[in-house]
Amino acid sequence: MTAERRVPGRGSIIGQYAPVATAVRGIPDGIPAAYREALAGGRLSWASPAIFTVGAYIGFYALGWLLARPSPHMTLIAIAVGLGLIGLLGGIGLGWSVVSESIRLPGVDRTLLGRYGSILAVVGLAALGAYFIVIGYIPVLHPGLEQSRVTAAEQGGAPFRVLAMLALPGAWVLVATAIAERNVRGTVVAGAVVAVTALGFALTGNRSPAFTVVEVAVIVGLLQAGKGRLRARGVAALSAIALAFVVGAGVFGAIRLASGSGVDGPPAPGAASPNYVALTGVAIRGYLVVPIQNLSYTMDAVPERIGWRLGLTYLQPVLTALPGKQTTFDADLKRALNQRYAGGGTVPGLLGEAFANFGPFGWLLMPFLVGAAITALYRLTASAAPEMTALYGFAIAHVSIGGILSGLAVASPFPYEGYIALVLPVVGVQLVRRRRSQSSTSTHTA
User: Fold this and answer.
1) CA 194, CA 218: separation in Å to the nearest integer?
2) Nearest to 334 by CA among 252, 249, 411
3) What phi and psi, each to the nearest 5 degrees, are found at residue 150?
4) If we measure between CA atoms, which residue out of 123, 118, 168 comes closest to residue 417?
5) Predicted local distance difference test score (pLDDT) of residue 267
6) What is the arithmetic mean of pLDDT over 362-366?
7) For residue 204, what pLDDT is reported?
8) pLDDT score, position 4
9) Which strand (E) or helix (H) includes residue 230?
10) Rounded distance, CA 208 to CA 249, Å?
């Protein structure tokens, strides 16, 4: 009886996990490949995660380290930042090796896509108007803005404000579709929708959606117009735009700081006029120290005051839709630390959020997963289909700006809402095409 020679295949453990092993082995090659692509031809692929996300990560944590107050956790924070960078680069390498740039997903009919964006925008803006009607006032004009914007959402208007967020992905879809069609009139209309949406959310006193709708629209517009690669002059212009956003966010923060004092309420009668220039500097500095400072706060609270969350923080914003009093992790962190200040909660940032869920291992795990996901999506966006451009524009901004500063899912259900709205047309067209293909095959077989 001759012995069988066992060859790893589908039936063996090695065969089943061979694709995973191959992908992991591709990480060392994927990282330099991502950077070669980003720097090819003497023009910078600024929207590549290897540039945009890694640059934002290093920039925010480096500036935060320089500006934050000393903390007893500084050694651990340095380890966290180092592990996070290793994880992020490893994820980029994995995403690059797994997804081939030659993959082209079937595009959505642009007329239907434009109508879809219009529906989202109309529903969102109508809900925003209903939000103001329900709360009965405009928060940005109300004394004590830093607190009144939070109070307003608790006065029955929260469901409308969540629904109003649909205007953001609607605006991005309209921008991508109009530019893809080279439709000047459509581009003007899309720009107007972006402006109205930004103004509407600015009136709520909430800075994040107002700036997000504009910054993502700029990213989507540049990518859809074929400006994903820029020479030195273009990079300088883009950097100037980014600086304008930072200063604008600082001015908005200064207005909020000047509108109230203490825990809540307006400034005392007869108080000196606020120094908006100084307050703008305070606000900008506050944004920059958040990733380091709030990581330290998170380590103060977890696990001694708040137990390990084991992934729960990523679901908490969605759970707020359930009956009863549901909180988000930023509110939990603020309460656990007995912090008293006007406004929302203490956002932990990407690394703080990862630590609260998975401990020090999270510092490596979550950046790795984020890097892999955003890089895979970047590779799929090479087709320049407007729906993919809109999805990637939001994803790269969410991960690289909001995610690093605040956390991937901390205080708002919008990331889920935005991704669902933008993924829907991408997945929908695949399902329709598959159904048509199956129907055609069945007909021929019969």
Assistant:
1) 10
2) 411
3) -75, -40
4) 168
5) 42
6) 97
7) 86
8) 40
9) strand 229-230
10) 9
Q: pLDDT at position 126, please?
A: 97
What are 127-142's pLDDT values in tens digits?
Answer: 999 998 988 888 887 7
* Helix or strand (DSSP H, E) at 229: strand 229-230
Please answer whether residues 155 and 135 qualify as being in contact, where contact means their C-beta atoms are separated by less than 8 angstroms.
Answer: yes
Q: Please report the pLDDT score of residue 410 as a whole number.
A: 75
Q: What is the DSSP string of 55-117?
A: HHHHHHHHHHHHHSPP-TTHHHHHHHHHHHHHHHHHHHHHHHHHS-TT--PPPPPHHHHHHHH
pLDDT in tens, 265-284: 334 444 457 788 888 888 89
What are the C-alpha distances in Å from 391 to residues 105, 135, 364, 420, 427? 13, 32, 25, 10, 12
Q: Which residue from 166, 175, 158 is spatially nearest to 217, judged by alpha carbons?
A: 175
Which amino acid is present at 176? Answer: A
d(CA 79, CA 300): 16
- Please tell me whether residue 44 adopts helix, strand or coil conformation: strand
Specify the DSSP class assigned to residue 155.
I
Whether residue 230 contacts residue 43, with contact meaning beta carbons closer than 8 Å, is answered with yes
Q: What's the whole-number mean pLDDT along residues 393-417?
A: 92
